[in-house]
Design brief:
Two copies of one chain form a homodimer. Chain A has 14 helices and 23 strands. Chain A is of the alpha/beta class and about 525 residues long.
Chain lengths: ~525, ~525
């Protein structure tokens, strides 16, 4: 497969004529060939029309066929081989091992959703058989299943050029649910996007899925992204990115006549709470692990630990000394784009100059353009409480330690935090009684609570929640990682007194699909 | 229990001082004693503060205790006895048998949610055990459960003074999920609201639930309703009412800093499709059943059949003749409020005067004030397609029959319809091939598809969907009737590597609550 700079509209490769962009080599800052033509409104319209045409057929594809399609995408991505890895490394500035790992995660995610589709639990089949003899009124026969919402607009994320981009978690879960997908590629990795897009496009053809099941659009400004969210054929949005861009999409969606869900994963500082016994027993070990998590991937993770809360005293001083020493040893790392690097340095400079912030340590110096230096800061609880800007995410390897007078102050600060993707507590058994006071506050504002670890490393699993109250995501009732993510793209439909011959297979009495169902309120496992 | 006209703020009865309202006897138009004092902003604030204080305790009440609380509410409502029935009949103008039936439904709903709570499936417990030996990286231990969203604002509905009001479906499902509830009573039945509110307030005390678990506010204008939706402690909204009021609440919610879900059930004309074989074989029988459904409860149901689509011809003429004859026999019925009656008569007058609408029949004349006369109209497919106002709901016993040239025209019209709570198809076996073409279009815009029946009579069941795409509801991913309604008020939280001693009971390894769980992706039923 070759990178040509084309839009993929259904099975066609189309040259976009709405200006063009080039990728930038993250490590050198130099533009890369080829140029990618931006989509016009007509291209967007064509992609959405195809997606709409595909919807009824694709959503009723058999579970087996849809699972095979997801697996074919995985195979086709692997078949891109080193071309994909090399292009992705150049575009993202991320190390080869990370990109290979991310490819494994992307492929694993597609295969997990293939299993989820085959299993059929997501159909949520329920049957309440009719009771014709019931008094005073007979009970009708009611059967319920989930169906796909409709075509989904997916926005590629800059920081996961494979796992949260063209065939990443949002696309995999939407396709698994039965939704056609129109992807708006991220301008930071257009070549990676086209290669993966070609892999999906090929799988659509190989598996005989309707043409409009998948399209891929490029566009440098906001026109195409906003146009997708406005389009009446788009019924949900999957987005990972900044708070500014996410809230903008939320507001565009809420101005539509018809409400559609926007699943925007936006902003989180992922508080880490150090409790007294753990800090006394393991200050240095926790500090070392913390810095490892902080600088991983140049700190460019949604779950990056950006905030440490702890009670002031000699044990916290030990933690700070060890963390500072470790951070100073951390080499600068190439960031995803010049723009992200610039924003990071500006935010770190603002923190450095802030009257209430003390700089504790900086990582090693930049050795080439576009490298971010890690940063560790501290402040007081009072300053943190009164300066809202100290709660803002700095995207990159920067963290703020807040010295609290006591645990009650620390709990007050937790209650002042916005919604978060993750929070972490470091505890020993002697801390259990105290941490119990904190858990309700953490549950209320967090999607995932980590014990003696950090939020980075988001396992693709059944029990994973990568989500959380606003502003960490637009809709805290959902997750964008793990098998539960499929639920975002479904809605229930009930069938009353429908003859067997007309019922969808998942609801027919003899259960031809062999799916688990709730019958008369009782879970009934398929044999 | 006595009707005093007080607000119920936690365990207190408070005299509202923000002007006052009186109920109106629907049948006579006369005001009824006592006056109900409207809530001030301070009252609203007190109710929300109490709800917030109650939240952490109430949401972690044991499943058994919460189920017993729901059942206590049911018992206390029944103990109100005839006082409740009589007041409710006077305020609503609905017949005694209907109100008694609605009380049964309300009590049954509370008991169903008690069963749902005890059963524990709504917790959605999932466990992915850690795999410390996994290569290249160990897998962490992940456990997931649903927790309550937070305090919920519930708006009483005019047309279900018991089943969708103070202790109706929204309140029951929110309380079942673990959410405290602040109810804004509907001004059409304040006495009914206070009585039921007192029953809930008493159950809170009897069951030792935290005081703020329930509050009830009165208010004549929009101030209190809008204030609730704006309050930062309110985390979800349950509403049944008009499209205008519902979209207003949606827009207030979307202007909040933090997104909250608004579950507004608003507007639906519930299309009924008559297929050729069924029409040929059973025109008169279907017509009779249709008119029964249309005039039930003076047509004041969200699922009232307001639109008939059928192919023009002699069989449709037979249907129209039979329906017209039946409708003319239908006596006028007292409507819920003078305002609703006035709006109904105005809408019927507009239809009567519409150049593209033909009046087929009117029901019997009004015998007393505030009685609505049923109305049956017809129009052409062309007029229906080109006049958007013909798709607007007329709240009351009015329906429009659209004569279609053929089934393709009928399908085109279906594709032009907005989202609906229900749709119905009347079919015989000879129609199956044709109806298959319609089902995808119906699924896309309907929450429940009824075969050979009508949408009225919404069974409280596990497989019920009372919801649908906008504008039938604000969020088509949900239902407001049936056990699935509890999902509206939950969000998932994941716990990573949490020690057994700190895990919520539903996720502890020995499963002390005996709930069904998904372990490593496999449904694992409690013994």
């Amino acid at each position: 497969m070759q990178i040509c700079g084309n839009l993929l509209i259904g099975q066609r490769a189309v040259r976009g004529t709405n200006s063009s962009i080039k990728a930038v080599n993250a490590a050198t800052g130099m533009p890369m060939e080829p140029a990618f033509g931006g989509a016009t409104q007509a291209d967007l319209n064509a992609a959405c029309a195809l997606a709409w045409d595909a919807f009824d057929t694709y959503r009723e594809s058999s579970l087996a066929a849809r699972a095979a399609f997801l697996e074919a995408i995985a195979v086709n991505i692997l078949e891109l081989g080193d071309d994909l890895i090399e292009r992705c490394v150049s575009e993202s500035g991320l190390p080869r091992a990370r990109i290979e790992g991310e490819r494994g995660r992307t492929v694993g995610q597609l295969r997990m959703f293939a299993d989820v589709v085959r299993n059929g639990d997501f159909v949520g089949a329920r049957i309440d058989p009719g009771l014709p003899e019931r008094k005073p009124m007979p009970r009708v026969d009611l059967r319920l299943r989930n169906i796909a919402l409709g075509p989904v607009a997916v926005f590629g994320a800059s920081n996961f050029p494979l796992a949260f981009s063209v065939a990443g978690g949002d696309t995999a879960s939407a396709l698994a649910a039965g939704c056609p997908v129109v992807v708006k590629a991220h301008s930071a990795h257009p070549g990676t996007s086209e290669l993966v897009g070609l892999a999906v496009q090929k799988a659509v053809k190989e598996c005989g899925m309707p043409e409009g099941t998948f399209s891929l659009l490029f566009g440098s400004g906001r026109e195409i992204g906003q146009g997708l969210v406005k389009d009446h054929r788009i019924k949900a949005v999957g987005f990972t990115g900044s708070r500014g861009a996410g809230t903008e999409l939320m507001s565009i969606a809420s101005a539509r006549k018809e409400f559609i869900p926007v699943y925007a994963e936006m902003s989180s500082i992922n508080p880490v709470l150090l409790f007294p016994a753990a800090l006394a027993n393991r200050a240095e070990a926790i500090a070392k692990a913390f810095v490892q998590s902080l600088v991983l991937g140049a700190g460019q993770f949604c779950t990056n630990p950006g905030l440490i809360l702890a009670v002031d005293g000699p044990d916290l001083d030990r933690f700070i000394a060890a963390a500072s020493a470790a951070l100073e040893q951390a080499p600068a790392s190439t960031m995803l784009t010049p723009g992200i690097h610039k924003a990071y340095e500006a935010a770190v400079a603002r923190a450095t100059d802030h009257a209430e912030i003390r700089t504790l340590a900086r990582g090693g110096p930049a050795a080439s353009p576009n490298q971010g230096r890690a940063a560790l800061f501290s402040t007081t609880a009072e300053a943190f409480r009164t300066h809202a800007e100290l709660q803002e995410e700095i995207f990159g390897a920067s963290a703020l330690i807040v010295r609290c007078a006591d645990l009650s102050t620390m709990l007050d600060l937790v209650e002042s935090l916005e919604g978060q993707l993750t929070s972490a507590v470091h505890i020993d058994e002697a801390d259990f009684a105290e941490v119990r006071r904190f858990l309700p506050a953490l549950e209320r504002r967090t999607g995932r609570i980590v014990v003696n670890g950090f939020g980075t490393g988001v396992e693709v699993a059944h029990a994973m929640v990568h989500g959380g109250p606003y502003p960490s995501t637009a809709d805290g009732r959902s997750t964008s990682v793990g098998s539960l993510a499929i639920n975002r793209f479904l809605r229930p439909v009930s069938y009353q007194d429908m003859p067997e011959a007309l019922l969808p297979a998942s609801l027919q009495s003899d259960n031809p699909l062999g799916v688990n169902r709730l019958v008369d309120g009782k879970p009934t496992l398929a044999q």
